[in-house]
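Lab notebook page, bench 4
Experiment: in silico fold of construct C2
Operator: M.H.
Input chain length: 611 residues
Purpose: comparison with the prior construct
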Amino acid sequence: MSKTEKQAFISTAICLIFMIMGSIVEQTGGQYYQLLFAIGIIGGGWKQTTEGIVEIIEDKKLNVDLLMALAAIGASIIGDWREGNMLIFIFCLSGALEEYTTNKSKKEITSLMKMQPKVAMKLLSDGSTKEVGVEELEIDDLVIVAKGASVPIDGEITKGATSIDEAAVSGESVPVDKTIGDNVFSGTINTESAFTMKVSKKADETLFAKIIKLVEEAQAQTSKTAGFIERIENVYVRVVLISVPLVIVLTHFFFGWAWEESFYRGMVMLVVASPCALVASATPATLAAMSSGAKRGVLFKGGAHLEELYRLKAISFDKTGTLTKGEPEVTDEYFFGNKADLLPILLAMESQSTHPLALAILAHYSGEGIAKEIEVKEIAGFGLQASYEGNEYKLGKKAATTGHEELINGLINDGKTIIFLSKNEELQAIIALLDIAKEDAKPAIDYFKAQGIHTSMFTGDNEGTARVIAKEVGVDQYFGNLLPEDKTRLIEEKRAQYNVNMMVGDGINDAPALATAAIGVAMGEGSDVAMDVADMVLMKNDLGKLVFSHKVAKKLHGIVRINMIVSVGVICFLLLSNFFQIISLPLGVIAHEGSTILVILNGLRMLKNIK
């Protein structure tokens, strides 16, 4: 429990205790019960009143705290000490609950800061280790991470294999297997074996540091609704302060009410007209929504983006790495000679290349054939060439001979990349590869289309590849052969047409489009530049998180709307009841502050799991 939260609950407890003691003394005919109520009013109300006075002095702004303090003083003047104490108690209770809600909402995100590693075991040149501060580590330093320890900094595994719990950065609860060459991130947990890693980023540039920075920025921002409520609060309080004395005077002279009754009704008005519930309608719920998102690996850079997300009308996806896996996979194979003889030669040639297509072919056939030891040379503009047992083999994107045109044209029309293997200028095999769609791409597209949101796909790949992936995932529209400036231009057109649009991408070339869209969403495993300019970050490349985010935005909108309707409705009802002399000060206090507690608890629903 935070210091401010403790103070809020202590003030509430003091107020309640002295209210009970004063009531007992008053009921038993004892003296000085007013003193007990006064202590309860001062003990409970000093915190909010002090904060209100400081805000008036420093920011020149009036707030609801001032209205509550004046109402309690007014009730005491007309002899309703118990009602004044009750007012402060319920006001304190709602304030304490709001403090609790706010802190609970921030807990999931601020706890990240406590998880940030402080020290690391640096491996020295003589083989010994030394404990150093994380900020002392330099790029290319070697660090040993023990079993059960936090990864101190971003880097690459150079020795060992293990499983890493990456929930802190991706929201994914299942540990991820890691081995030599894999990246590891600061703040994640080594759940299995010790390993050695090479530092790739400084402490203030790690993914974890970026997350904390994004969270701090997000907490400092408010939604448009919350900002609007904050702006009108000062004006609203002024109107109430002017209206109360007018009501007291007018009801006395024009309605013939006694001064005591007019003053009493003025005090009731001071209580029931206070916008406490309205002020609490948006902010606690928004913080809770952001906390819920952070827990699931979705970072919102401010409440305003959540509000915009509810009004989303069009969404555009980058293809590579966003809708597709970002790595080519073998989809078709055609061997026109003996596969058992040709495959080892094919693998032998590809094993001497580091091209992504070669790596994809080797991965596809791993365990199927043993690569022969063949001397391979590279032919500029063609591919690879090798001699084996008196035969000349060529491997590349260009066919050494003609033939099978219908088959080849069909594969090209399907947007696939083709690798040809020839023997003595005669075609022996065709391998087709494609960057295939992610499993979660089509369900995500289907969800947004069902919501009436226009979907489109952008890619720099050729028209054939774009058409195949677009058809597979089901987007409404696709664009191929795009440069970064083309993506930005299209996003500008989408924004002009749909007003609230979104761009989802992961690469440096997506950054201009992300910054141009009404809402830019970066995939967390993408480039740092994309993360920096985006309004939202999906810490794991999971489009299901994007669907979850939209559901969060819809639920938040519903809760805030209900809160505002309830708060304004209660104020109007209580004002009318007071004018017709139906409601008493205690009932006004209970109804008004009760509505404040209700909207706060309603906002807390955002912390529940959203399906």
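Observations: The domain at 300-325+438-539 is CATH 3.40.50.1000 (Rossmann fold). The chain has four domains: 3-110+221-286+554-607, 138-201, 300-325+438-539, 329-434.
Next step: discuss at group meeting.
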